[in-house]
């Protein structure tokens, strides 16, 4: 179970905001023991360092509480190979309306992408959602649901509850993914949802590998209780 100390970080981070920035969410996930890309957040008004200390290729993303879909605003640049490409992307992203900064991260290797989400349901309370990424979720609605907090058995049941689970077990020559790492992310995300401090969590995509998993994009909306 996540420690109360770590979860209490949600209060000062919020500062009366409805949503956290992506790097703030990933800091929480990292403290919970989950893997996220190495990255650096540059706030608006700050200069991009000549050497940000990250390995190319890089990805750069606009970051703002008011921007719900970075893709719709062309707010993501991938495959940046050198400092020149990074600086060009950085400058373009900072010009996007409502930009609060830019998150620069090392690009993760390709893997099997899944979606993990959580919301507060008026009837059932905090619930979790799991599904394969891309067209499997958008077109086929191949998802499963469970009540938070999840046990490891609950998480395994959710993973087995989607039609596309065979893709996780190795299909047509591909290697099976690390289900233990996937279960860990589901359980820890559900513990965050069960605190009563979070309205919604969206980890999309989560990239699964033969050994391990990594949260590539993360959003979190808050619902701080009255003190």
Task: Sum this structure up briefly.
Helix 6 (about 150-160) packs across helix 7 (about 180-195).
Name some characteristics of this structure.
single chain; 227 residues; alpha+beta; Dna Ligase, domain 1; D-amino Acid Aminotransferase, Chain A, domain 1; six-stranded antiparallel beta sheet
What report would you give on this structure?
The protein has helices at 4-7, 10-14, 22-31, 83-94, 135-138, 152-160, 179-193, and strands at 39-43, 58-63, 76-80, 101-106, 112-121, 125-132, 143-147, 198-208, 213-215, 218-222. The chain is an alpha+beta fold and 227 residues long. It has two domains: 38-106, 2-Layer Sandwich (Dna Ligase, domain 1); 110-222, D-amino Acid Aminotransferase, Chain A, domain 1 (2-Layer Sandwich). Strands 5, 6, 7, 8, 9 and 10 form a six-stranded antiparallel beta sheet that branches. Strands 1-4-2-3 form a four-stranded antiparallel beta sheet, with helices on one face.
